[in-house]
Structure formats: C-alpha cells, structure tokens
Write a structure and sequence with these properties.
The complex is a heterodimer of chains A (about 375) and B (about 350).
Chain A (H helix, E strand, L loop, with lengths): L2 H10 L11 H21 L2 H27 L4 H24 L4 H5 L3 H5 L5 H33 L4 H28 L3 H29 L1 E13 L5 E14 L5 H4 L3 H9 L12 H12 L6 E5 L18 H7 L4 H23 L14
Helix pairs in contact in A: 2-7, 3-4, 3-7, 4-7, 4-8, 4-9, 7-8, 7-14, 8-9, 8-11, 8-14, 11-12, 11-14, 12-13
Chain B lengths: L51 E12 L2 E11 L4 E5 L6 H8 L7 E8 L2 E3 L5 H4 L3 E4 L11 H10 L5 H15 L14 H12 L6 E5 L7 H16 L3 E5 L3 H7 L2 E6 L2 E2 L2 H9 L2 E7 L5 H7 L7 E4 L2 E6 L2 H13 L4 E6 L3 H12 L3
Classes of the chains: A mainly alpha (about 375), B alpha/beta (about 350).
C-alpha cells in the first residue's frame, strides 16, 4: 500500500497527537532514560532498598574494622583492606543482584504493566536496555555506600592509583554483567521465581562452579613424576656422606589444564586485572595479588623430574628445598594475564542474555509459552 | 530555556483552538515547536490528525492447539462505536491483543485506514501505536507511582516532553474524574478507580483508534453513564471506538455497530440480518391491567402472538412497523399505554439468537 503517502501525511502534519516518538539516536536514549527513571522509581527506590543499603553499610564497617585489626596485627597495609572491601562489594552484589534484576521484565508482565509500555512508542530494545541500566545503577549504590571505607583504606597507604582505578573499573563492569544476566533471564524465562533461581545458579556457577571444576579437575587428572632424593648418612666419626639416593614415583595434580575455568570467575577477573602492588620481597600487599599470582602459578605444568637434595647445602641438615621457588611477583610477571578474556566472555554472555530477552519480549509476539499471558 | 521564548500553544496556527471536547485546554504555556498532544484531534476531522478506520480480514490466531481466533472479519469506521460481542472464551481479548499490536496473527490482514493510505500495524507497530489507545482487561498499574506520575510516564512514552506530559496528565485525570486521587500511589486505588486510570492511560496519546476491553467492569452506575457519554464524545470527534463488554444493555445504548463473535468466528452479515429480521418480543404495560389482553385481540392481534410473564404482557412483532401499527391501534382503541418497548436489548437478542441458531 502507499506507505509513502501515509508517511508524508504524518510528517507534514502540523503536530498533533502523533508528534513525538523516539526518532534517531538521541530519541532512542531518551526513551531508554524514561524506562530507567520509571524502573528506579517503581521497583528499586523503596524502603526495603534503603534498609538493604543500611545493613550493607554496617556490614562493610564491620569488615573494615575486622580487616584493619587483622591486617594491623600482621603489619600489613591499606592494600589488604582496600581489596577486601572491593571483594565484599562484589560478594554482596552477586547475592543481591539476581533478586533485584531477576524479575525486571517477567515481574512487570505478571503485574500487567509491561504491555501498557509495549503499546506506546517505546521499543522493546529501549525496555530491555533501560531495565538493564536501572539494575546496574541500583547495584552501583552498593559501591557508593562503600566509598568512605575505600577512602580510609587508601588513606592508610600502600594502594597504588593503578590498583584503585583498575579494581573499581572492573568491579563496575562486573556489576553491569550481573545486572545484564538478571534482566536477560527475566526476559527469557516467564516465571519470576524461576528466573531469579536461574540467576542465582548462574552467579553460583561463575563464582563457585569454576572453583569447584578447577579443584576437581586438577585432582582427578594426575600426572606421575619421579622424585630423586638425596639424603645424608652420618658416619661414626661425625662426618656424613651424601650417598643415599632414593627415587620414588608420585603423582601431581594437573591444574595447568584447568586454570582456564578460573578465567571467567568474577573475583579472579577483578584480582587478575588489579594485581600490581608488591612489597620489596615480592609479596603482594593486597588480596588481588595473592589470588592473581595463585592463578598464574596454576598455569605452570608440574615438573616431571624433581630433585631434592637434603645434603649438599652444607651441613647435612639441609632443608631440602634450597630453591625457594619464584616469588608471587615473579609468578605474576611470568604468567599469562587473563582478565580481559574472562571479562570478554562474561560480556558476551551478558549480551547474549539481553539479546535473548529482547527477542523473547518483542511485539507483536509470535510465540507464547503455554499458559502465559502477555497483557 | 528562556521564558521569553515561550508562548501559548496554538497561537501560531490557530488563534482560537477548539477545546470543547473531553480534553481541557492546556493551562500553562508550552514551549514552541512542541505541540500539545491535546491540540490537533480536538479540531475534528478537518484537523491534521486524520481519522483512522480499521479493517480486519479473516484474522486467525491459535495458541498450540487452542484456536482462540479462527476467522474474524469486520471493519470499523471513524466516528463509529463498534461493540465486540461474544461469550467468555469467544476470542475477544485475543482479538484485542492483535489489534493492539501485542500479538501477531497467524494469518489474515489487519489494516489501519488513514485517509487514502493503509498501515499494517503488524508490520509497522511503532508507526501504528501512536494512533491506537488500548485499555486492557487486566488492571496492572505501577504501584509506587502516583496517579499523576503514572499518566505522565505514559504520555512521555509516546515521546512527548515533560511539560506536555504534565498538562496531558492533568487533563486526563479530569477526564476520568480522579482529581482527588491524583497524588496518591496507584496501589491504593479501588478496582473501579484502577479501571478509570486504565482508561485515562488508553487516552494518553489522543488515539484515533480506541480499543477498550471490558471498560465498564468495576465501575459504579454513575461512572458507567459518564463512560458512555465519554465514548460518544470521542466518537463524535471522529475517533474509531471498539469496545467489548459483557453488559450488553450498556452497549445497546452507545454502539453504532456490532460484531458478534463465537468460538473465534465472526457472525456473517447475512446471519445477523436474518436474526434481526426475525420476530421479536415487545413488552406492553397499560394502566388498565388485564384488560390489555382482550384489547389486543379486539384490534386484531393474533392471540398466539400474545404472551404473559411475571411482568405482564408481551407481543411478538415481526418488525418495527408492525409494532408501530399495534401501538397506534391500541391508543386509538382508548387503551392507556404506559410502556411499549422491546422486551430485550437488540444486542442481547441478536447474540442469543445467533448462538441458538448457530453462527456458521
């Protein structure tokens, strides 16, 4: 039919009912902003939310004091405190975010208000992106609450600017990924309860499942290695000879096959990107460094031939492992950085979830799950 | 934005905008270049907002093996109020969802007729939606928002700026009579009040095509009368109104057209015409009590056409001319007639007859 004529009629009209709409790039984001505002006012900004933030503030205060006491006793620094708080925010966000965003779309459908948005000029993409951004902004409140404690940690010292920037930047991205997963699932799954549960399972798979898979895989896949041990034999005159050489065969776990699982772990991503602070003896000054160097040491295959000499280091009372091994800092320098791969994979997962939500929420709807209502 | 640049809306093109319709004029100034949503449609059919007709042709939709809508065809003209009539489960709501661009038909054609052009709302939902106002049969509302905020949000979702949305929301609140609740959160509204809010939301963008799914349910009698008047006013402005309801006597008073739906199929024009042409019961009351029976027989009415029930006498009339003739004869015979009307509503009778006789 003559769409051109119709279009001309509307475009040429001197305003009226059909002025408006969300044409162009700016228009699209204006519509997204409307949904964000509505979402924050309607779903997030309630008394319960402020209670959660208050409890969170109190918890962070406790953690800060606890870590400060512990770290102070160990002669440590602000780095430990800072990294602990960052991880605590991530922990709380992964506990709260699925519940907060996991019914963003299907909850509104159940409430009967989603369709009243869908019949306006707001497009499905604007709904999905708006709800994602709103969930992200809401979880940022957790970060804002912790700012005073982060400042205290930075004030204590030993936290480099690079660590602050990278850890907070990655934390920000992780909160976005969590929000996207929740909103995406809420669009893909019809039942709010089910989508919230799946959201929690997904977060658990990322945070705990990767750890369990890494541990189990390494333990199951063992590789044999031979260990040659030199011991000293004491003579009657008080001297000793390094004569006894024993060779045994043991097996070692092959964590190097499975370290890739940890790449997608949110905590590892934050740590791996932010591990740069070490003391003069090569030890990390924060939790990031310990985790990152641990992951990078897992990248190395175990040696198949080991040589342990309890004798030749002088007096016959050698402690065997004369080589102290690489420091954490050396491990970190020689290992393969992985945070960008993990973040890219997570972003792809989040984008997939949002795309799926968009696809499932499009109108006019082609397919409907059995027994579901769209209005 | 400088206030100096602001001038009253309408002064550019129309010195005396006609705001006599249901939408009160914007009370405050509107920035130039941002037309009020209320302005154009109130100018009537000659204004820039063209009337929108609706054509539905053999539309089908099934959910799995449930054939909710099997074959629906009808058309609705601007200025008409079309009643969508059918028993529960006849596919009314499914049809409404398809017309509201929420549900895709499996087959068939839906077209909006705008002037000489046609718009396919299934293919171009974003162009059709600003023209359509849909009032769902469910009563969802944003519980934490006030009535005013909810309506402002809806108006802004059509792309209108904040200032326009504020004026429109005020006008909508006045239209549906929710002034006293404007600043209360929508969760405190009663069922009938939510129904009014839902109606206001459907009117948010001055739609040319109104789809109302059970708009009267939950409304008190006064509100129902107001709704009826509002619908007539909207149709008088050249809008196309499609309304479904179980309360047929109410539709009887406003509907200019009717679409009968049973098991997802619309009754054909012929079937409806045949039913309408068939004999119909009229109720007659007089001040003379049982004298009416002999009086009817004395003016030549076949006794077989005369019946009695708890409320008195009924007479089967073949058509309205027949009824007029009987009334004239009764009055001429000196019977003091106080009531002379069809015993049941036209829509109700037609629906019952169609169901009883089969609609194939």
């Amino acid at each position: 039919m003559s769409r051109g004529g119709f279009g001309g009629g509307v475009a040429g009209g001197s305003g009226g009912a059909r002025a408006g709409g969300f044409a162009g790039f700016g228009g699209f984001w204006r519509g997204v902003g409307l949904i964000v505002g509505l979402e924050l006012r309607q779903r997030v900004r309630g008394v319960a939310w402020y209670v959660i933030l208050g409890v969170f503030f109190a918890l962070i205060a406790l953690v800060t004091i606890g870590v400060a006491v512990l770290a102070g006793g160990l002669g440590s620094s602000g780095g430990t405190l800072f990294s602990s708080i960052v991880f605590f925010v991530l922990l709380l966000a992964s506990l709260i975010s699925p519940a907060l965003s996991g019914n963003a779309i299907n909850g509104e459908r159940e409430g009967g208000t989603l369709a009243t948005i869908q019949v306006t000029s707001i497009a499905t993409g604007q709904i999905v992106i708006g709800k994602w951004l709103a969930a992200w902004i809401a979880s940022l409140a957790l970060l804002v609450v912790t700012v005073p404690f982060l400042l205290v940690a930075i004030g204590i010292g030993d936290v480099s600017a690079a660590t602050v920037l990278s850890s907070l930047g990655i934390l920000l991205a992780e909160l976005g990924v969590l929000a996207a997963l929740g909103v995406g699932l809420s669009g893909l799954i019809r039942k709010p309860l089910f989508s919230v549960v799946v959201g929690y399972l997904t977060v658990a798979a990322l945070c705990l499942g990767t750890l369990i898979g890494f541990g189990l895989g390494g333990a199951v896949t063992q590789t044999p290695y031979t260990q040659t041990t030199v011991t000293s034999v004491y003579n009657a005159d008080g001297t000793y000879t390094c004569s006894d050489v024993t060779t045994s065969t043991y097996s070692a776990p092959r964590f190097d096959y499975y370290w890739g699982l940890l790449v997608i772990n949110p905590y590892v991503i934050v740590a791996d990107a932010s591990a740069g602070d070490f003391d003069s003896s090569g030890n990390p000054t924060n939790v990031f460094g310990w985790i990152a160097s641990g992951v990078r040491s897992a990248q190395q295959a175990p040696e198949t031939d080991r040589y342990v000499d309890y004798c030749t280091d002088g007096n016959g009372f050698g402690d065997g492992f004369t080589d102290d091994g690489p420091t954490a800092e050396e491990l970190l320098r020689t290992g393969v950085p992985s945070w960008f791969i993990g973040l890219a994979l997570q972003s792809a997962l989040a984008a997939l979830a949002l795309f799926g939500a968009w696809h499932a929420t499009r109108t006019p709807a082609r397919r409907l799950a059995r027994g579901s209502r769209i209005a | 934005m400088g206030t100096a640049a602001i001038e009253p809306e309408g002064s550019m093109s129309d010195p005396q905008p006609d705001f006599s319709s249901y939408a009160p004029p914007p009370s405050g100034p509107v920035p130039p270049g941002q037309p009020s949503v209320w302005q154009a449609p109130t100018r009537g059919p000659a204004g820039p907002a063209e009337p929108v007709g609706l054509v539905v042709d053999d539309v089908r939709r099934s959910f799995g093996d449930v054939h909710a809508v099997r074959s629906v065809s009808f058309h609705a003209e601007p200025g008409s109020i079309t009643a969508l009539i059918g028993p529960n489960g006849s596919g009314k709501t499914t049809l409404m969802l398809m017309l509201a661009t929420l549900l895709r038909p499996d087959a068939g054609r839906i077209r909006l007729r705008i002037g000489g052009a046609e718009l396919d709302p299934v293919a171009e939902p974003l162009r059709a939606r600003p023209l359509i106002g849909w009032m769902p049969d469910s009563l969802g509302s944003w519980a934490n928002l006030t009535v005013r905020q909810a309506l402002e949000s809806t108006v802004r979702m059509y792309g209108h700026p904040r200032a326009v949305a504020a004026q429109s929301a005020a006008a909508l609140i006045a239209t549906v009579g929710l002034e006293s609740l404007a600043t209360r959160p929508t969760r405190v509204l009663s069922r009938g009040q939510k129904q009014k809010l839902s109606l206001a939301r459907a009117l948010a963008n001055e739609p040319r095509l109104l789809l109302l799914d059970e708009p009267a349910s939950g409304l008190d009698p006064v509100a129902r009368i107001e709704l009826r008047e509002l619908l007539q006013r909207l149709a008088g402005e050249g809008r196309t109104v499609l309304i479904s309801s179980h309360v047929l006597s109410e539709l009887d008073e406003v509907a200019t057209d009717a679409v009968y739906l049973d098991h997802g199929v619309t009754a054909s024009q012929d079937a409806v015409a045949a039913v309408r042409a068939s004999a119909r019961l009229w109720r007659i009351k007089t001040l003379d009590g049982f004298a009416l029976g002999p009086a009817l027989e004395s003016i030549g009415v076949d006794p077989l056409r005369i019946g009695t029930d708890g409320q008195g006498f009924t007479v089967s009339m073949t058509d309205e001319a027949d009824a007029a003739a009987v009334l004239a004869a009764l009055v001429a015979a000196g019977v003091r007639v106080s009531w002379f009307a069809p015993a049941s509503g036209e829509l109700e009778r037609t629906m019952q007859a169609l169901q009883g006789g089969g609609m194939a």
